[in-house]
Design brief:
Largest sheet: 4 strands, antiparallel
Oligomer: single chain
Low-confidence stretches: none
Structural class: mainly beta
Number of strands: 7
Strand order of the largest sheet: 1-2-3-4
Strand content: 25-35%
Length: about 120
């Protein structure tokens, strides 16, 4: 039995296929969590979905990102990244293996902040 959980929305979400520690993205003293289901088809077939949850996860609503095109597979890779823009907050790297004009793949960098972005 889990102490807390975040559930996918649909049967094919496969949320939790990829999970990563995000560090303390909003500098509130609690580590945050990234989780993904790269094969999820919520908006488009195998577009993928990524959930970001500020810690502690008790009663927290995830912030969701979705792949925009068929076979994007957003969330195939997840990682916290050092504070590359020197604003005091680490960034998030979200791998998207089927993204881009020629489907060569892309990595999206999301800025960390005190609030969800």
């Amino acid at each position: 039995a889990a102490d807390e959980s975040v559930a996918g929305t649909y049967a094919d979400d496969q949320l939790g296929q990829v999970v990563a520690a995000a560090g303390d993205m909003n500098q509130d003293g609690y580590d945050d969590v990234l989780m993904a289901g790269p094969s999820a088809s919520e908006h488009v077939s195998t577009g993928g979905k990524v959930a970001f949850v500020h810690g502690p996860i008790t009663n927290r609503t995830p912030m969701w990102w979705y792949g925009l095109a068929t076979t994007d597979k957003a969330g195939v890779g997840l990682s916290a990244v050092e504070d590359s823009d020197l604003d005091g907050y680490p960034e998030l790297a979200i791998g998207c293996s089927g993204c881009g004009l020629s489907r060569f793949g892309e990595v999206y960098i999301r800025k960390g902040a005190a609030e969800n972005r």
